[in-house]
Description:
37% of the residues lie in helices and 19% in strands. By secondary structure, it is α+β, with helices and mostly antiparallel strands. Strands 1-2-3-4 form a four-stranded antiparallel β-sheet.
Amino acid sequence: MAFGLRRKELEDWKHKVKNGQIAFLTHYWYDPRFPHEHTVTKIGCCDLEKLIHWGKKYDLKPEWIDKKKDYPHFDVLGERQRLILRNEGYGNHINRFHLE
């Protein structure tokens, strides 16, 4: 279940994903499988080869791509999430969601 994101942010993310861009969307989140995590970042792109290639630099495996809907994406959380956000210039996500 997602919390703390604006409709425009979601729509912008979907637009970028559908247009073949690597897009980032961070939001508050709850999943009982990960009780110590309170956020997730979805990193998506409809061009699966591009997404797979991008994911390799962070050791993200192609089988981790969520392909259930029209917006293929990786779900990243925890330390990997913070590392990726920092490296990709999304420090504002780290600040906004109090990830450090």
